[in-house]
């Protein structure tokens, strides 16, 4: 079954490759991020490559209420949501400002949880849907000079594991893809990550898992 695929934090690498994979399956795609001009470029590329409908939406993931509004807007048609937003800040805790710590956590964890909550409320009613999260090896092997990103990826992994049993019992599949390598836009790795996310969505219900790995 196809429907609406919403990418939050859509960029030229993982976000675009995953959206493209779902578009090839006939999903209508909404690309959401802060910079509209960049989204227009990505949307134009998707429209060239598929017959799927492609829309863009502006959202600032440092404001979780904006994320809530975005997901709520598309909730009635939402079949798959992909949370891909993250702040990559190469600083130690001591080097970060107090404001940047809070801002990073808002994007990396708080807005993700808000998106999950809003999407799940709609999906549970229909007893179907996939919630996909971009994880990373930093969630398992954190480093001090990428601390807020490490904490964010660990948080997403924790959320997927904790929520999986209850969501699955209500027909909703939540899963995190833990990525262990760099993903360059347009690369074979990017294409493979898109395929890995597709496989998570397409898994038969009796084979659902809360985590898969790539790289």
Q: What does it look like?
A:
By secondary structure, the chain is of the alpha/beta class. The protein has one domain: NAD(P)-binding Rossmann-like Domain (Rossmann fold), CATH 3.40.50. The chain contains six helices and seven strands, in the order βαβαβαβαβαβαβ. A seven-stranded parallel β-sheet has the order 3-2-1-4-5-6-7, with helices on both faces. α5 links the parallel β5 and β6 (173-179). α3 (64-74) runs parallel beside α4 and α4 (98-126) runs parallel beside α5. The longest helix has 29 residues, at 98-126. It is globular. The protein starts with a strand and ends with a strand. The mean pLDDT is 96.
Produce a short descriptive summary.
It contains 6 helices and 7 strands, in the order E-H-E-H-E-H-E-H-E-H-E-H-E. With 215 residues, the protein is of the alpha/beta class. It has one domain: NAD(P)-binding Rossmann-like Domain (Rossmann fold).
């Amino acid at each position: 079954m196809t429907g609406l695929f919403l990418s939050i934090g859509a960029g030229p690498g993982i976000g675009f490759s995953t959206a493209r994979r779902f578009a090839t399956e006939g999903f209508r795609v909404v690309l959401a991020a802060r910079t509209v001009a960049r989204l227009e470029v990505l949307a134009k590329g998707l429209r060239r490559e598929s017959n799927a409908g492609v829309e863009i939406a502006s959202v600032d993931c440092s404001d979780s209420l904006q994320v809530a509004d975005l997901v709520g807007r598309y909730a009635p048609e939402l079949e798959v949501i992909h949370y891909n937003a993250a702040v990559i800040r190469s600083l130690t805790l001591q080097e970060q400002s107090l404001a940047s710590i809070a801002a990073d956590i808002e994007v990396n964890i708080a807005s993700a949880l808000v998106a999950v909550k809003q999407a799940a409320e709609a999906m549970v009613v229909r007893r179907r849907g996939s919630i996909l999260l971009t994880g990373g090896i930093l969630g398992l092997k954190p480093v001090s000079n990428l601390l807020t990103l490490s904490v964010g990826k660990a948080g997403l992994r924790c959320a997927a594991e904790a929520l999986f049993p209850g969501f699955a019992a209500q027909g909703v599949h939540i899963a995190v893809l833990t990525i262990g390598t760099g993903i360059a836009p347009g690369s074979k790795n990017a294409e493979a990550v898109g395929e890995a996310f597709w496989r998570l969505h397409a898994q038969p219900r009796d084979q659902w898992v809360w985590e898969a790995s790539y790289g």
